[in-house]
Amino acid sequence: MVLQGPSIFSGNAHPDLASRICAYLEQPLGHAEVFSFSNENIFVQLGDNVRERDVFVVQPAARPVNNNFMELLIMLDAVRRASAGRVTAVVPYYPYGRSDKKDQPRVPITARLVANLIETAGADRVLTVDLHAGQIQGFFNVPTDELTALKLLATHFRTQGFDGVVVAPDLGSAKRARNLAHLLESPLALSEKRRQANDDSAEMLHLIGEVDGRDALIIDDEIDTAGTLAGVAVLLKENGARDVYAAATHGVLSEPALTRINEAPIKQVIITDTLPAPPPTASGKITVCSVAPLLGEAIRRIHTGQSVGELFK
Question: If exposure means fewest CB atoms within 10 Å of the residue's CB, which of 58, 94, 267, 272 is most exposed?
């Protein structure tokens, strides 16, 4: 019996990414009707037969996050009820990833709730990219592959001849920054940050490391409102840094992120397309690298039973 190729479907969150994944795999995107009625109830109907097929549903938590997450759950349920052989939820940007622990009294662990919902909806496997906290993988009772875009980002800066210091914007990003510094064979610096409340405000304290007279590259898993990013960029310039660059896997870019990026002393910001990117006219500083080949190769390997970990050796 000849192994059939994977069936790949997309909701409305990021169909362009799903199309690029299918282009890498040289196959068409599956047909699915996904829309909301006037009462905001979501309707899903698959246009292709998936009985006993290996199905991948591509749906990052793009805006509107809750609506797109609900789309994902309903699509997973539709695929499961259509008798798919195996169902993989491809969630390049995981929703509620910051709510991964009880760090205050009487708060939920929403990242765990999201994992429970994805499993209950019918996912036999999960594929994601650069979780905010790696331990979120342990919230799932099904196999979970976390890919990383660090090599992709490192390749971009290596081809540009970057020769500077990699900077972690806070303690939580130290390991990610260390790994990127290793890939670029660069020294490491750390910015100490203290958050004052449950909003997006933060107080920059001081810089640990030497950046005087050198280029600096700020690395994080995501850029949301860019408050931290802009603050670190100013701190680096105050400490004598030459050109300041920034890189992140997920370009969330909530308001007023674009304004802050445009006004900050940052030369270039590199993000990936795990989420829909802003139009080029929004900021001339932003460059987008695609994770479609990375996701496409992971899907190919999962489908054929090969090692996904080999991608990062």
Answer: 267
Residue-by-residue DSSP string for 23-65: HHHTSPPPPEEEEE-TTS-EEEEESS--BT-EEEEE---PSSH
Which own/partner contact pairs does 186-195 have at CB distance under 8 Å and 24+ positions apart?
186/162, 186/217, 189/165, 189/216, 191/167, 191/232, 191/235, 193/169, 193/228, 193/231, 193/232
How confident is the prediction for the chain on average, in pLDDT? 94
| DSSP states of 216-285 | EEEEEEEESSSHHHHHHHHHHHHTT-SSEEEEEEEE---TTHHHHHHHSS-SEEEEETTSPPPPGGG-TT
Instruction: Record the pTM.
Output: 0.94
Does residue 196 sit in helix, strand or coil?
coil
Give per-residue pLDDT as tens, 159-169: 999 999 999 99
Choosing from 193, 237, 267, 285, the catalytic residue is 193
193 carries an active-site annotation: yes
Q: Are 131 and 137 in contact (CB under 8 A)?
A: yes
The pLDDT assigned to 200 comes to 56
Q: Report, as an integer, the average pLDDT of 49-62.
A: 97
C-alpha to C-alpha distance for 54 and 252, rounded to whole angstroms = 30
Q: What is the CA radius of gyration of the chain?
A: 20
CB–CB of 298/147 below 8 Å? yes
DSSP labels for 149-193? -HHHHHHHHHHTT--SEEEESSGGGHHHHHHHHHHHT--EEEEEE
Task: Answer yes or no: are the C-beta atoms of 8 and 18 closer than 8 Å.
Answer: yes
Residue listed under structure tokens 């282009």 = 23
Which residues are within 8 A (CB) of 174 and not within 5 positions of it... i.e. 6 or more apart?
A: 168, 190
Q: Give me the pLDDT at residue 192, please.
A: 84
